[in-house]
Amino acid sequence: MVSGAHHGNLQKIRNGRRTFGITPHIPGGFITIETLEKITKVAKKYNGVIKITSGQRLLITNLEGDDLPKIWEELGMEPAVKKQNTVKNVEMCPAGYCKRSKFNTIGTGMKLSKKYQYMEVPCRTKIGVAGCRNACGGVYSKDVGVIADKTGFLVTAGGSAGHNPRMADIIIQDVDEKEAMKIVDKIFGIYKEEGMPGEKLGDYIDRIGLKEFKDKVL
Ligand code: SF4
């Protein structure tokens, strides 16, 4: 990662040419027309390639390293990830725009995003939020999840996709939104205090045991 004001990831070295990618922070994947226009304008100007990522973001890649500071300035946006081992993303479903939603969890997701995005934790962490038990966006593969149901909210923990896939465990269900937020806060507090450097939340839960983890949280 190129640090400082011009965060970018080295993507490829081909025939000695280094190209970089950047991912601006787009909370929940909801983007205004104006911001979208800004991104396409910058991509066009700097010969970028836009990729819609699985994390509800837009990656702009194929960029020259020297252009990155100008690009960030023209975008006027924050990078989605500033440091490794932080809360990298809060992914959310369209909830209030979906006929199946039991609660408009976009607000829940935005509150979580405001509170936890960029927070330092033992290992990279994702949060998932969904408006019904369909859990669109793969909430059960996220480290922390909040899902609305007819009877209240569920909070999940320990999900992971990738190298060592793990399905999240349901920590509590049938609580109101406020209580769900409190549980999420407790999960982060415990994980920050007891997780080992580089240890995913799911691995921490497996190390101490689900029962003990639940006892600590509840
Ligand atoms: S999780 Fe439920 S509310 Fe959200 S998009 Fe999927 S079906 Fe709709």
Automatic annotation (TrEMBL):
Source taxon at top rank: Bacteria
Residue ranges annotated for the Nitrite/sulphite reductase 4Fe-4S domain, each copy included: 87-217
Residue ranges annotated for the Nitrite/Sulfite reductase ferredoxin-like domain, each copy included: 14-76
Protein's UniProt name: NAD(P)/FAD-dependent oxidoreductase
Iron-sulfur as UniProt keyword: yes
UniProt source species: Clostridium sardiniense (Clostridium absonum)
Keyword set, alphabetical order: Heme, Iron, Iron-sulfur, Metal-binding, Oxidoreductase
PANTHER family per the UniProt record, alphabetical: NITRITE REDUCTASE (NADH) LARGE SUBUNIT
UniProt cross-references to InterPro entries, sorted A to Z: NasD-like, NiRdtase/SiRdtase_haem-b_fer, Nit/Sulf_reduc_fer-like_dom_sf, NO2/SO3_Rdtase_4Fe4S_dom, NO2/SO3_Rdtase_4Fe4S_sf
